[in-house]
Design brief:
seven-stranded mixed beta sheet, 2 domains, 193 residues, 21% helix, Nucleoside Triphosphate Pyrophosphohydrolase, alpha+beta
Length: 193
Amino acid sequence: MTISDRVRIKDVRVLSDNWTPLKTTTFEYRRADGAWQTQYRETYERDNAAAVLPYNLARRTVILVKQFRLPAFIRGYDDLLIEAAAGVLDNASPEERIRAEAEEETGYRLHHVHKVFEAFMSPGAVTEKLHFFVAEYEPDMRVSDGGGLEHEGEDIEVLELSIDEALAMIADGRIIDAKAIMLLQYAALHVFR
């Protein structure tokens, strides 16, 4: 029996569609014991996205970004978040979109990006699946100051950190963005070994 055999969608309503749709769904789920149970869930319908960690092996550095995030602020985080550069696919391939996003946010024009994994970041409420990449960079690949797109409300600071400092920032709580943590740990295990 597949999961499709265990789910019956009964009703879907759009609660909000200001930025991306927020929907409420009524469905029946067939439990492991065979009983059908009616459940209700709200889902935030986000397009898939991609994130990248640019790294320089010789210098043992990585590029991260720092920016304001309203949900983190609402939850009591009174600082800018240090993150991996990322963006929504907008109907592009993950590789194509992450190159463009990296250039917009970091100012680096990355030549070769390497996909390392995919993950659902908050599968209990958000439909978005994230494609994770790493990419080598050199100082001469910087084509602008980065900072993001002002018309999208972006006001991004670019950070170049040693891998050791970035990992220490996870340990002491200065980096709490999941995508940055995942990519930095990947880099520690597979890139900077």
